[in-house]
Write a structure and sequence with these properties.
This protein has 11 helices and 8 strands. By secondary structure, it is an alpha/beta fold. α5 (105-117) packs parallel to α7 (138-149) and α7 packs across α8 (179-196). Bound molecules: 2-phosphoglycolic acid. The site of 2-phosphoglycolic acid (PGA) has 13 residues, from β8.
Length: 249
């Protein structure tokens, strides 16, 4: 049985007031041993949040990493710098990075490899655009993102990776995939994982759903056996909404 994982992605949002608000009003149901909660704020808040949330059960992750370990890459953050801040989780290949910052599948595969090498668990985002869904190439697109993204990871490390299926047309749009659509894609992803890894390892890999998850629709997704948790953008910026989502799990 895979434990559940909820990841909040604050993207380029947040403030000291929001952090304080979260700290005051947000708490984990303590007996919930089968649930892990990670918040990924902008990098400038990582250390503050690590210190504040230490011992609370809430873990702090990053939203991105550079594919090189150090060097003259102004404005970038390396895996060593994330380790310095005590980060254990990192989102990789989010569709906004793919669209606006040139993150190709090949670059993403290098980021995956460097994270695993430095013992940070990657959350690999995959998902099709609306155009790809309408042209019926969505399965092929997602399978390729998955295959290339995981291509530099050894079989023995694969279970440390988390996959987030995030249809691009559902991100920040208020449109969630129908439970049946999400279930179908999660099955495709699991099938692909089984084909590239040993059965034992493939079964351990968590697959999250992401795309306009909120307290009103999480109930319909949570009961789907293939969905091991959620990657949440907008609703993770509202402590009461994030709390409600967690309480469903
Ligand atoms: P959303 O974002 O929940 O606001 O749709 C999800 C994501 O981008 O990971």
């Amino acid at each position: 049985m895979r434990s559940k994982l909820i990841v909040g992605n604050w993207k380029m949002n947040g403030s000291h007031d929001l952090i304080e608000n979260f700290y005051q009003s947000f708490s984990l149901p303590f007996d919930e041993v089968d649930l892990e909660v990670v918040i990924c704020p902008p990098n400038v808040f990582i250390t503050t949040m690590q210190n504040l949330f230490e011992g609370s059960g809430i873990l702090i992750g990053a939203q991105n990493v550079h594919s090189e370990n150090n060097g003259a890459f102004t404005g970038e953050t390396s895996v060593s710098l994330l380790r310095e801040c005590g980060v254990n989780w990192c989102i990789v290949g989010h569709s906004e990075r793919r669209e606006h910052f040139g993150d190709t599948d090949e670059i993403i595969s290098r980021k995956m490899e460097i994270l695993i090498r430095h013992k940070i668990r990657p959350i690999l985002c995959v998902g099709e655009t609306l155009e790809q869904r309408e042209s019926l190439s969505f399965e092929e697109v997602v399978v390729k993102q998955l295959r290339v993204g995981l291509s530099k990871i050894n079989n023995k490390d694969l279970h440390k990776c988390v996959i987030a299926y995030e249809p691009v047309w559902a991100i920040g749009t208020g449109i969630t995939a129908e439970p049946k659509q999400a279930e179908y894609m999660h099955k495709i992803i699991r099938k692909e994982l089984l084909s590239i890894s040993s059965r034992e390892n493939a079964k351990k890999i968590k697959i999250l759903y992401g795309g306009s998850v909120n307290p009103d629709n999480v109930g319909s997704l949570i009961n789907i056996k293939e969905i091991d948790g959620a990657l949440i953008g907008g609703a993770s910026l509202i402590p009461s909404s994030f709390q409600k989502i967690i309480e469903y799990y």
